[in-house]
Amino acid sequence: MNSRGLWLRAGGFAAATLLIALFGAWLLFGRGRSPIQTDLLAMLPATERNPLAEVAAQRLAHANGDRVILLVANTDDDRAENAARELGHALGNDPVFASVTAELPPFDLQQLAAPYLSHRFVLLTDADRNAIEQPGYNPAQALAQHMNEPFVTGVGTRLQDDPFGWLQHWLDQQPWSRSPLVPEDNLLTAHRDGTSYVLVTATLNGSSYDDAIQQRALSAIDQAEKAIQHDQPGTRMLRTGALFYATAARAGAERDVHRVGWISTLGIGLLLLGIFRSPGPLLLAFLSTGVGIVAATTVSVLVFGQIYLLTLVFGAALLGEAVDYSIQYLSARANAGHAWEARTGLRQVRPALLLALGTSLLGYLLLGLVPFSALRQMACFAMTGMTVACLSVFWLLPALLQRPAKPISATSVRCALVLQNTVSRVASGWRGAALALFLLCLAIPGWYQLHHDDDVHLLVAPPAALAAQEAQIRDITGLGNGTQFYLVQGADEEQVLQREEALEQRLQDMVDAGRLQGWLGLAGMVPSLQRQHANQDALTPWFAEPDRMHQWLSSAGFRADDIERWVQAWPGTPLELQAWLKTPIATPFRYLWMGNGAASLVLPQGDAGSAWLQKAAAGLPGVTLVDKPASISDLFGRYRRYASVWLLAAILLIAPVFGWRYGLGDVPRVLAPPVLGIGFTLSMLGYLHQPLTLFHWMALMLVLGVGANYAVFLREGEPHVSHRPGAMYASVLLSAITALLSFGLLALSSMPALRDFGLTLLLGIGFTALLVPTSVPRRMLSS
Questions:
Q1: Cellular component GO terms, alphabetically (predicted)?
Q2: pTM of the model
């Protein structure tokens, strides 16, 4: 191909790149919404075998996704209340919030009991029903006891409507009666350790994961917080909600992208400038890498419809591997001197680049087989970026690099030659065997210290301040978390409620034993018809003799018309679930009923272990404990256990390719650097007491691919630099250092998963780069 042909091909490639870039810009910025996904839950795979359980988990996770919970605290009651009113007014005037609840409309707590009066005879606590069924039960004594009980300050009944206190006792067990938050001056208030806490809630006018919504909402909350702290001295505000976690995740990812991207770019730039002694190679190397990253971003958004923060940070680190292809071509040009010819140079590096690309794609392909959308997107991103970066070397760089270049820095070549000869000499003969035995003895203790930790919480690290505030809000308000819940299913509503009652009896036993704080379920608010009939049957003997009931109430001082009204109300009507769900008091609890089937949710409250919660559901038909974090952790553990098999499979797949190229006898030699690098990395992780996760094993697969690339580069390139010993290994070390400057910097990420990824690659690539000279027989090395 002549020079004109090179330019035509380069022009076509540049035009295609421009179109991809424009299409990518439209996908990212031209559709009115950002495709950057900050919802960490969206990255997690489906884990529940029961499809309805998966739906329930997602529903519960996003039930309060757009809600902001604020708790205003002050040691002075009046200041706390004034601050809450001021905060509610300020947020309510901002259109970013669809609704804000601070001050409640005036209402009479006693009126909340009114809807239950017609059902009073079917709503009994277990304690009252058991007492009534006892042979020695004395209604007159129970009546006197209730009349002497303290005045009810919460949701209560009038004495003439509930003379024996049966309905009052049942109401006292309801969630709205047990909550530490009580209405005071029309504000929901809790008191703890001399401090008053007032609840303010707000619902966003959009998604918590929308960047524009995040910025506007946070700005409004921060301004309002400063204002109330100024107007009401001593006020502080606790906050929790998906808004704050999503914002923190986005900010952390942006810091990681900037840190990894800028430091690696600067480091790689200075390194290339020092090695090639000209800004031209530096710009072309970044051009090739930039083309790959633009294409990778576009394809990822096109395929997945969104791009995760994890992928963005990973993409910033991709520079270190994508730049390898252009480095090899630039090195071939620098080593050729005045004899350089672009097409000949391309033919020289093509086999090595294609072989290296194939091994890398194989490693990322295995990564993409994991049923975890974030890893699949990372694999898609990497495979696209690697392929396009390699194609840019074939179709773009030859046209731009037709002139000879300065040779690689003599100092770097000399240093590389010394290291290459040292490693090759030490690793051969009896010295090599003795060194191998010594390193094995050194590695074994590290391997013995290896252990695993599959906890999904290692995927992210929420800011400690936010986590502490959420825990404090939960403790003060009594709000539970929705990461663990029971799914109760049945043939119809009645069976669901009966099964839920059986579960709640076991949960109550856990509460009595101090293992659980409480629970939230519909059966406690709407008993099954079977339970309601049993309650009514327990009272029937006492209403069968109206004259005796009149006598007891008359002796207690009740008026005749109140007595008659009470007796005439018997037997009342059953409380039906669907009718109750339509009442205002049911509004906060409607999400507990799965509207698309006969199923309900029961939420345990407190910090009971998963084993105890599982035990509570054991043997109960239709009851399933859904523990989303535990399910995902189990999934990670399962695939982490498979990872060693995948790693072995990757080695077995690469071996025939190397055997075809270099002969079966040389396969162990070529594979030795990455395989030994993996072994030494595992040993170091053991010494560092790093618990192995799925992300460590995924990184080890990339160590295999990258290490195999280095072996291929050295093996393929060494015959072409016999006139300049050490030059080829210098280019391999250059590739390794650029990878360490990008992937290795992930070890500084704020995301634990990426830290694991980065540390493993830092160790693995470092060990492999040092061992690469052993992949080439000493007779082939120029010295």
A1: plasma membrane
A2: 0.74
Question: Position 583: which residue type?
Answer: T
The CA distances from residue 463 to 42, 43, 252, 444, 642, in Å, are 19, 19, 10, 37, 32
Rounded Cα distance between 437 and 209, Å, is 54
**Any idea of the CA torsion for 694, 699, 703, 709, to the nearest 10 degrees?**
120
Sign of the Cα pseudo-torsion (587, 589, 594, 599, in order): negative
Tell me the Cα Rg of the chain: 35
Rounded to an integer, what distance in angstroms lies between the CA atom of residue 107 and that of residue 576? 25
C-alpha distances (whole Å) from 667 to each of 437, 476, 649 are 21, 64, 15
Peptide bond into 571 cis (omega under 30): yes
User: Which two three-digit tokens encode residue 645?
Assistant: 């098999």
Question: Are 503 and 486 spatial neighbours (Cβ–Cβ below 8 Å)?
Answer: yes
Query: Are residues 381 and 24 in contact, defined by beta-carbon separation less than 8 angstroms?
Result: no
Number of neighbours of residue 417 by Cβ within 10 angstroms: 20
For residue 406, pLDDT over 90 is answered with no
Tell me what the pLDDT averaged over the chain comes to.
83
691-731 pLDDT, tens digit each: 988 888 878 887 888 888 888 888 888 887 777 888 888 88
Question: How many CB atoms sit inside 10 A of residue 65's CB?
Answer: 16
Spatial separation of the C-alpha atoms in residues 757 and 760, rounded to whole Å: 5
Which residue bears the tokens 């629970």?
Answer: 519
Q: Is the pLDDT at 38 greater than 80, yes or no?
A: no
Cβ-based neighbours of 259, under 8 Å, separated by 6 or more: 745, 748
Measured from the Cβ of residue 725, the count of other Cβ atoms closer than 10 Å reads 18
Q: Which pLDDT score is estimated for 474? A: 79
DSSP lists the bridge partners of residue 187 as: 103, 184
Which secondary-structure segment (H or E) carries 486? strand 484-489
pLDDT of residue 309: 67
CA 782 – CA 718 distance, rounded (Å): 7
Neighbours of 485 (CB within 10 A): 27
Q: Tell me, what's the pLDDT at 779? A: 63
* Token reading at 509: 């036993």
Indicate the length of the chain as a whole number.
783
Provide the token pair at 582: 């339509």
DSSP secondary structure code for residue 602 in this structure = E
pLDDT at 55 over 80: no
Please give the Cα distance from 779 to 83 (Å, whole number): 82
Query: With b meaning 16 or more CB within 10 Å and e meaning fewer, what string describes 55-64?
Result: bbbbebbeeb
Judged by DSSP in three states, 188 sits in strand
SS percent in the chain: helix, strand, coil, step 5:
70, 10, 25
Q: Which residue in 499, 479, 455, 483 sits closest to 626, CA to CA?
A: 483
User: What is the spatial distance between Cα 391 and Cα 444, in angstroms, rounded to a whole number?
Assistant: 43
DSSP notation for 74-91: ESSHHHHHHHHHHHHHHH
Which string of DSSP letters, residue by residue, matches 529-551? HHHHHHHHHHHHHHHS-HHHHHH
- How far is residue 43 CA from its own chain's centroid? 6
**pLDDT tens readout for residues 215-231:** 899 999 999 999 999 99
Structural domains of the chain, ranges and CATH numbers in brackets: 3-32+247-448+663-780 (1.20.1640.10), 66-105+186-240 (3.30.70.600)
Quick check: 763 pLDDT over 90?
yes
Burial class (CB in 10 A: 0-12, 13-18, 19+), 137: middle
- DSSP annotation string for 283-306: HHHHHHHHHHHHHHHHHHHHHHSS
